[in-house]
Amino acid sequence: MPGWAKCPKSVARQAFRQVREWIGAEQNQTGIAEIHGGSLFSYDHLLSQVSASLRAEGMIAAEAQIVAQAMVDAQRDESFSHGIYRLLGVIRSMREKPTWGRNEPKIRRVAPGIVLADAADSFAPYAFHLAMPILVEAARSQGIAALAIRNCLHLSALWPEVEPLAREGLSALAMTPNHAWMAPAGGTRPVFGTNPIAFSWPRPGRAPFVFDFATSEIARGEIELHRREGKAAVPGWGLDADGNATNDPAAILAGAMLPFGGHKGSALAAMVELLAASLVGDLLSRDALAEDGGEGLAPRHGEIVIAFDLARFATGATVDGSAAAEAMFADIAAQGARLPGDRRYAARARSEELGIWVSDALLADISTLTGTEWGRSAPDDFQHQNKRSATSPG
Ligand code: NDP
């Protein structure tokens, strides 16, 4: 399906560059700026539209607000694969499953350092949102704590979870399985999901260090994009259904993706299955895929988030770990390398200045699916309510 979620990010960046000069003059008159192939929304306006679309499908209001926020935050940071595009998958899933997105998660602390969230078929960001204060308290009191989420629906990125934890002064690690699309290194058939891993580290007076990536060589959506455009896949992306290396994207989609870094990515993907499925007591990616039964709905499984309290770990230390980390980051930057997270933060600043860009193609898809047209922001809304969410810097 066409949509900006699968367009190269460089295209979106170019679009922003093209409007940078004139948008200031136009936004006062129209409230929402129309740019090449898309529109710019204020944060609040986009949030209210997405949230309303979810409520219209029967999602409980509190969950709709949080799930919408996760998508708008990703759109704002130009993490398009997990931005507003995901609304389509959430709505399709809710229409097929009448209980999904309509139950309150149950959160309890089962040990001083373990928080257990039964998401009860709610979407992961909502279960995380409800559990996060308890996780933060547990990490501060115990030095380290884990949140085990079960029975959640997962269509989101992980950085929106580890970044707010870092803003609370905690380092965090998050992992989740999904549907088994990926073969182990040396294997021929899918066993693992594309199993993302995200990590955050708090930085004094700076936006946190955050990385968040799948353990596959390339995103599944990227392979799909190559298939649609008739382009060859890059060697190493995947295998055909017989387990042979191929550069045919359609054959890979019907066969198996491959992990990044050969046996190293393969082992990391296995670790995600073990910690975020077996340990938390929920489905492995292969079982989650089997449960889906080919319907192609939101993956339903678990997640694990581990939080570390830097101050407690520093007890009695003679080395200032935070200062040493800053020196390491400075060394990275001094070499002309960038830190993971820097692109997102730059995109966030741009979106907060200019508005959040959504492609016409995606808006049309949403309109077709929901039967509604999203309204335009009023000028004041655009100018003054482009406000920051929990993952905004500063
Ligand atoms: P990428 O391969 O694009 O890697 C993204 C990470 O690497 C980001 O932290 C990014 O920082 C950083 N990065 C990229 N380029 C550089 C560079 N040159 N120097 C330093 N850092 C760099 O991500 P994926 O396609 O693997 O994953 C994208 C998203 O998809 C993730 O958010 C992940 O959670 C999500 N996902 C979710 C799944 C699920 O089941 N829920 C399954 C698979 C993926 P920056 O953001 O600043 O560019």
Description:
Helix 3 (43-56) crosses helix 4. The chain is globular, with a radius of gyration of 21 Å. The strands form 3 sheets. The chain has a 7-stranded mixed sheet, with helices on both faces. A 3-stranded antiparallel sheet has the order 1-2-12. The longest helix has 19 residues, at 124-142. The chain has helices at residues 9-20, 23-30, 43-56, 61-76, 86-96, 124-142, 159-167, 220-229, 249-254, 263-278, 285-292, 310-313, 321-334, 342-354, 360-370, 379-384, and strands spanning 34-35, 38-41, 106-111, 114-123, 144-153, 170-175, 197-203, 206-213, 238-239, 256-257, 300-309, 356-359. The chain has 2 domains: 4-99 and 340-384, Malate/L-lactate/L-sulpholactate dehydrogenase, four-helix barrel (Hypothetical Oxidoreductase Yiak, Chain: A, domain 1, Orthogonal Bundle), CATH 1.10.1530.10; 106-307, Malate/L-lactate/L-sulpholactate dehydrogenase, NADPH binding domain (Ribosomal Protein S8, Chain: A, domain 1, 2-Layer Sandwich), CATH 3.30.1370.60. The chain is an alpha+beta fold and 394 residues long. The chain is built from 16 helices and 12 strands. NADPH dihydro-nicotinamide-adenine-dinucleotide phosphate binds next to strand 8 and helix 14.
Structural class: alpha+beta
Percent helix: 40-55%
Number of strands: 12
CATH class membership of the largest domain? Alpha Beta
Low-confidence stretches: 1-12, 18-32, 378-388
